[in-house]
């Protein structure tokens, strides 16, 4: 959530109507809710959290389109 807050703060008004991407799965719906309030209309993420169903429900409730890639884009 902290990274999303920083990104959306930097985007400012440019976030309105934008697409947000995450290189890791979103474990909680709060990121979706915050992104929607900032004007994000779609989100792409790898998925794979045990809470994916909650995240999907939050996206549906907020009217945010979401795509799951099924692929993580970073390695530890």
Which descriptors apply to this entry?
76 residues; alpha/beta; Cytidine Deaminase, domain 2; 3-stranded parallel beta sheet; Cytidine_deaminase-like
The total domain count is 1
Mean of all residue-level pLDDT scores: 94
Residues in helix, %: 25-40%
Number of strands: 3
CATH superfamily: AICAR transformylase, duplication domain
Examine the coordinates and then state which fold CATH places here, giving the name of the CATH topology.
Cytidine Deaminase, domain 2
Number of helices: 3
Radius of gyration, in Å, reads 11 Å
Determine and state the CATH class. Alpha Beta
What would you call the structural class?
Answer: alpha/beta
Biggest sheet architecture: 3 strands, parallel
Portion in strands: 5-15%
What gap, in angstroms, lies between the N and C termini? 19 Å
Protein name: IMP cyclohydrolase
InterPro entries: AICAR_Tfase_dup_dom_sf (IPR024051), Cytidine_deaminase-like (IPR016193), PurH-like (IPR002695)
GO cellular component, one term: cytosol
GO biological process, one term: 'de novo' IMP biosynthetic process
Architecture overview:
The protein has 76 residues and is of the alpha/beta class. The protein has a single domain (1-9, 17-68), classed as 3-Layer(aba) Sandwich (Cytidine Deaminase, domain 2). 38% of the residues lie in helices and 14% in strands. It is built from 3 helices and 3 strands, in the order H-E-H-E-H-E. It has a 3-stranded parallel sheet with strand order 1-2-3, with helices on one face. Helix 2 runs parallel beside helix 3 (52-62). GO terms for molecular function: IMP cyclohydrolase activity; phosphoribosylaminoimidazolecarboxamide formyltransferase activity. One of its GO terms (biological process) is 'de novo' IMP biosynthetic process. This is IMP cyclohydrolase.
């Amino acid at each position: 959530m902290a990274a999303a807050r920083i990104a959306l703060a930097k985007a400012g008004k440019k976030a309105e109507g934008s697409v947000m991407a995450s290189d890791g799965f979103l474990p909680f719906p709060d990121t979706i809710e915050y992104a929607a309030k900032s004007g994000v209309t779609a989100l792409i993420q790898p998925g794979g959290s045990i809470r994916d169903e909650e995240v999907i429900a939050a996206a549906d409730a907020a009217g945010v389109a979401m795509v799951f890639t099924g692929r993580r884009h970073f390695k530890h």
